[in-house]
Design goal:
Elements lengths: L2 H6 L3 H8 L2 E7 L8 H13 L4 E7 L16 H11 L3 E7 L7 H8 L8 E9 L4 H13 L2 E3 L5 E3 L4 E2 L3 E2 L5 H20 L3
Parallel strand pairs: 1-2, 1-3, 3-4, 4-5, 4-6
Antiparallel strand pairs: 7-8
Length: about 200
């Protein structure tokens, strides 16, 4: 407790800010049939919800039916709905799978369909693939920089060989729990700080 808080008590503004939880979207980065990102996203959300430090929700880009950028006149309702959803979020956790050493085309398309809605927000990355999705995550970090998204350092990586059964049933090792919570600590902290910039 600071000197002025002791002297004058907590201000109304400080109380309001403390009561307002941040909204963090867990973005599923794949739309393909047979994808496992919903399993990974649900697992991250189950860990996040136990923390009680923010409002966490799954955001599935497949729900928005985004066309390929530049192939239409841009009036599809999903585009506006996508931007509106992002605008109401304070931070993100990207669930990223590696395709040919990079992120999926669907995720890149979704990233490109918004601009200001990404600005001055924080993001964590949970990736998976034969090498834990590390190469895809590194590509995503470059895109985040261009979109003014502050990506946090802690990065849980999941292996197709040790965290999935038959490449399709997600069975994460317990050791990932520490990294996921550390990543969420950073996302919540940075999201709160960046909210003051916006």
């Amino acid at each position: 407790m600071g000197f002025f808080t002791k002297l004058f008590g907590t201000s109304k503004e400080e109380t309001t800010m403390a009561a307002e939880k941040l909204n963090i979207g867990i973005i599923l980065g794949s739309t393909r049939q047979g994808r496992v990102s919903p399993q990974v996203g649900a697992w991250v959300k189950s860990i996040a919800d136990k923390r009680g430090d923010a409002n966490y929700e799954i955001v599935d880009i497949a729900d928005f039916n985004l066309p390929f950028l530049g192939t239409t006149d841009g009036t599809e309702p999903g585009i506006a709905a996508w931007n509106e959803k992002l605008a109401h979020l304070d931070g993100f956790v990207f669930i990223v799978q590696e395709y040919n050493h990079s992120i999926s085309g669907a995720l890149k398309n979704a990233l490109d369909f918004a601009r200001e809605a990404w600005y001055n927000k924080a993001a964590g990355i949970v990736s998976y693939g034969s090498t834990g999705g590390a190469r895809a995550a590194e590509h995503l970090r470059g895109i985040c920089g261009e979109l003014k998204i502050a990506d946090v350092r802690t990065h849980p990586t999941l292996s197709l060989f040790t965290d999935f059964e038959n490449g399709s049933e997600f069975k994460p090792q317990e050791l990932h729990l520490t990294n996921v919570n550390a990543m969420l600590d950073e996302v919540v902290s940075w999201s709160g700080a960046l909210k003051t910039v916006r």
